[in-house]
Transcriptional regulator
Amino acid sequence: MQTLQHIFKIEEQERKDGILEILSDKYCRIILESIMHKPKSAIEITAEANIPMSTVYRRIQTLHDNNLVKTSGIITDDGKRLFLYKSKIKGIQSRFNDGKTEVELILNN
């Protein structure tokens, strides 16, 4: 079965730069991969990826600022709020062609 990919082209140079910076950061890539298929908490990401909790929170903030993750929340049985993060993208395509940078996001449905 073939799936249809939804691709979003980034036009603004500042946003392109932000996306490319995220792509170059290994922790951002690991986190995006971890939360691509199901929402996870920062605690789950830390345990799964062996990344310090403070690093996970900083990178989640960067990803959120660049509109690459969505945040949802639940209330645990003991009444605490737990935030869950899920990637809005499945992939990033970039090309440097004739002096121009093209960046496209493959959206995560």
